[in-house]
């Protein structure tokens, strides 16, 4: 226990306090304090010692114990007894459940081969042991289909690696030193709260905060300047900024000459991407573009925080290449607090190859995209053998993945054997044949990956699992034992896993080991401090040339390791443009006027403030904070359709429909509607993903959630 923390001063005297880590898919990865009595989690708090958590948790987690003991929590293994999706289950024992799974899988393997079995998981739990490892090694050993996981950030990763390489980039904590901060397609107030606190502190010290967002989000409302390009046109804005920085003579020529590649070609490419050209595409006035270019170049240190939403249209990857190029043009990288932040995860020393054992994948094993699972289950993508069984954990595709109607139709297949390990009977688990109860946060030992800061985070097993729930890794250990897998990794305890999964001997871990983590709860990686870290002052980009590559010779598309399957699965795809550029959305008035006639409105479906993806959307306290599913629409568009504030509306396109309550507001411009994500399908009429597309964007097989045309009409 950190000596600075006196448990008895924080919580009641009879209870004990343990270090926790928030396991959710959130860049903040908060360090928590769990108050526990008699094996029961009484309450949680943010760790006051952690420089980012600073003692505060978000609205989702502040009463985390209530999620642990929610009356709907799944407590026992169950078998489906009613029709698929009817949610009629009977309690069975663990032995019965695991025996049935293994028997069914063996029969499927005999008839179709192991690739007829597919895993489906994501970062519902970000623990190294129960999240990231969680099953990859097991399914690789089984010879199952490889499920490519490109839900989030993959286009961004590809673009980032091409331009600057696997660097943590600008430390989110260094923003306290920034004089100019651009938050681009990120709703920090809801999704990166603890970074927003640092941005606010910098703002109080005089930094100007600019938010570039398709609508007036909570974060945009806290900015000094909100710039609202039409969704999917950020690439045009970024190219025009490059044009304008060059045209206004604001390039840091010395930095460009020494530490970048392809400047002359970029200059030539950007020459025609003028602010006038960009105004017509983005709707952002020429004067604003020039001003932003001037301020970004001159108000140093200038910081850019890119949100994953930048990748969510066809040209998303190209957009991120353009934005990632800007700090090298202006020389922002020379300063503490200057540069651009993508995911600091690149400098975390995790051993993905040990966690996920890609070496166990039989050669020639097929890869299926988690974004296209509906099509895959229905055989719309040729599948030989067909997927006959799927096991789902740490993810809820029926709520979160695109083309939900197809996913539901696929899960309704009588011949599909679905296993679901869950905390609740989620929209996906509703279709399961076997349900397995999984342990939650305080009930298992782990270390939690962070993609949003430079700390390692430890989570103590300090509470008992209710009912018969067991941690994910124990589920896979038991399955592996039943299938006779002899590899030692299937026998490691959770603690042994942690010893193996982190490269404790790396320079970033100097002075840190598992014992240290247990005693302190968190540790900053040894990669410099937020007050002195200037990783690219003199170039040192981890690219093939060692420079920031505006131009990438022979650039090819790829799905970046480690997120492809959390292992190094680098597979070069089609040729890419060597230079960044603006590539318009697929579903737009410019690109597809016929489609736009039928579906004239561009929907954006970002995260909900009080839900964590689909987690918490079944909890009454969070529903009260979040309100019912709303559809934000401008007065002009509402008038055209006879919609009044508070009317129930139907949002539809050829892929499906969902319903919500109209919220007429100037926060969205005409032509755009906003409806947030996470509401459960079983509690609503459709969801935002009933209408979203499973088409990939230009890079990294990323999702195209913002590249989406719809029509809104009055509903009854
Ligand atoms: N339209 C639209 N769709 C989107 C997005 C968007 O912006 N717009 N965002 C996308 C993004 S960024 C992401 S990351 C994905 C997220 O998609 P998902 O990862 O599928 O999202 P969650 O809803 O968090 O689902 C996690 C599930 O895992 C369960 N779970 C949590 N912890 C554990 C555990 O320890 N064990 C087991 N067995 N289960 C556990 C939870 O109960 C929950 O049901 O959604 C994507 N979908
Ligand atoms: N409260 C809460 N916090 C979360 C999550 C959650 O579900 N709820 N999910 C977690 C996860 S998985 C992730 S990946 C992060 C993501 O966090 P963010 O990066 O903030 O992602 P989003 O909320 O999807 O979108 C952010 C903003 O981008 C805007 N946007 C969408 N498309 C465009 C576009 O084309 N151009 C521009 N300029 N703006 C656009 C949206 O209007 C939205 O305000 O948040 C994490 N934190
Ligand atoms: S969801 Fe994010 S902000 Fe909330 S407690 Fe977890 S890590 Fe912190
Ligand atoms: Mo995400």
TrEMBL record:
UniProt keyword Metal-binding present: yes
Cofactor: Mo-bis(molybdopterin guanine dinucleotide)
Classification via SUPFAM superfamilies: ADC-like (SSF50692), Formate dehydrogenase/DMSO reductase, domains 1-3 (SSF53706)
Domain 4Fe-4S Mo/W bis-MGD-type: 15-72
Record Pfam families: Molybdop_Fe4S4 (PF04879), Molybdopterin (PF00384), Molydop_binding (PF01568)
PROSITE patterns: 4FE4S_MOW_BIS_MGD, MOLYBDOPTERIN_PROK_3
Keyword Metal-binding: yes
Any one GO molecular function term: molybdopterin cofactor binding
Stored Gene3D superfamilies: 2.40.40.20, 3.40.50.740, ADC-like domains, Dimethylsulfoxide Reductase, domain 2, Formate dehydrogenase/DMSO reductase
Keywords: Iron, Iron-sulfur, Metal-binding, Molybdenum, Oxidoreductase
Family: Belongs to the prokaryotic molybdopterin-containing oxidoreductase family.
Protein known as: Molybdopterin oxidoreductase family protein
Originating organism: Hansschlegelia quercus
């Amino acid at each position: 226990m950190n000596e600075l923390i006196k448990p008895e001063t924080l919580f009641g005297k009879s209870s004990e306090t343990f270090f926790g880590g928030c396991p959710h898919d959130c860049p903040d990865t908060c360090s928590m304090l769990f108050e526990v009595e008699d094996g029961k989690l009484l309450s949680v708090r943010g760790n006051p010692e952690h420089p980012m958590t600073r003692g505060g948790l978000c609205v989702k987690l502040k009463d985390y114990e209530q999620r642990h003991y929610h009356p709907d929590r799944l407590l026992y293994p169950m078998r489906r007894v009613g029709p698929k999706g009817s949610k009629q289950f009977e309690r069975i024992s663990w032995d019965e459940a695991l025996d049935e799974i293994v028997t069914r899988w063996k029969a499927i393997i005999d008839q179709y081969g192991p690739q007829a079995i597919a895993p489906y998981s994501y970062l519902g739990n970000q623990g190294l042991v129960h999240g990231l490892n969680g099953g990859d090694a097991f399914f690789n050993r089984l010879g199952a289909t490889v499920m490519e996981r490109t839900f989030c950030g993959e286009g961004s990763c590809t673009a980032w690696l091409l331009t600057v390489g696997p660097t943590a980039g600008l430390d989110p904590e260094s923003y306290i030193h920034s004089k100019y901060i651009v938050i681009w397609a990120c709703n920090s107030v809801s999704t990166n709260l603890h970074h927003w606190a640092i941005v606010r502190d910098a703002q109080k010290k005089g930094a100007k905060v600019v938010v570039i967002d398709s609508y007036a989000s909570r974060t945009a409302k806290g900015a000094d300047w909100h710039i609202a390009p039409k969704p999917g046109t950020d690439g045009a804005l970024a190219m025009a900024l490059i044009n304008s920085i060059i045209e206004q003579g604001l390039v840091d020529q010395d930095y460009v000459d020494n530490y970048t590649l392809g400047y002359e070609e970029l200059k030539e490419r950007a020459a025609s991407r003028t602010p006038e050209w960009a105004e017509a595409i983005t709707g952002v006035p020429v004067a604003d573009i020039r001003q932003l270019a001037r301020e970004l170049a001159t108000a140093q240190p200038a910081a850019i925080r890119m949100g994953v939403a930048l990748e969510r249209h066809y040209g998303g990857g190209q957009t991120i290449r353009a934005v990632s190029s800007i700090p090298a043009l202006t020389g922002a990288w020379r300063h503490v607090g200057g540069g651009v932040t993508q995911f600091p995860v690149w400098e975390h020393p995790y051993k993905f190859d040990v966690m996920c054992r890609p070496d166990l994948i039989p050669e020639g094993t097929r890869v299926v995209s988690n974004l296209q699972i509906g099509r895959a289950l229905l055989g719309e993508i040729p599948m030989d053998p067909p997927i006959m069984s799927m096991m789902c954990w740490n993810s809820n595709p029926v709520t979160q993945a695109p083309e939900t109607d197809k996913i539901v139709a696929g899960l309704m297949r009588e011949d599909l054997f679905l296993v679901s390990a869950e905390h609740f009977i989620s929209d996906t688990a509703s279709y399961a044949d076997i349900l397995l109860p999984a342990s939650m946060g305080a009930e298992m030992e782990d270390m939690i990956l962070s993609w949003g800061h430079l700390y390692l985070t430890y989570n103590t097993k300090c509470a008992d699992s209710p009912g018969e729930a067991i941690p994910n890794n124990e589920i896979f250990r038991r399955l592996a034992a039943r299938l006779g897998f002899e590899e030692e990794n299937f026998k490691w305890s959770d603690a042994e896993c942690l010893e193996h999964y982190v490269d404790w001997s790396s320079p970033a871990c100097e002075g840190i080991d598992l014992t240290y983590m247990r005693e302190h709860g968190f540790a900053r990686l040894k990669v410099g401090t937020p007050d002195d870290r200037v990783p690219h002052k003199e170039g040192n980009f981890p690219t093939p040339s060692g420079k920031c590559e505006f131009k990438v010779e022979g650039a090819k598309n790829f799905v970046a390791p480690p997120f492809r399957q959390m292992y190094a699965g680098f597979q070069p795809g089609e040729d890419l443009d060597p230079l960044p550029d603006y590539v318009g959305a697929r579903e737009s008035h410019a690109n597809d006027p016929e489609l736009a006639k039928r579906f004239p409105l561009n929907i954006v479906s970002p995260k909900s403030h009080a839900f964590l993806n689909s987690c918490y959307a079944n909890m009454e306290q969070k529903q009260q904070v979040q309100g019912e599913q709303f559809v934000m629409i401008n007065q002009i568009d509402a008038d055209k359709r006879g919609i009044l504030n508070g009317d129930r509306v139907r949002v539809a396109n050829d892929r499906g429909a969902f319903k919500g309550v109209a919220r007429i507001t100037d926060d969205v411009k005409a032509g755009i509607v906003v409806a947030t994500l996470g509401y459960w399908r079983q509690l609503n009429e459709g969801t935002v993903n009933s209408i979203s597309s499973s088409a990939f964007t230009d890079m990294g097989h990323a999702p195209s959630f913002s590249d989406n045309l719809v029509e809104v009409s009055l509903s009854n």
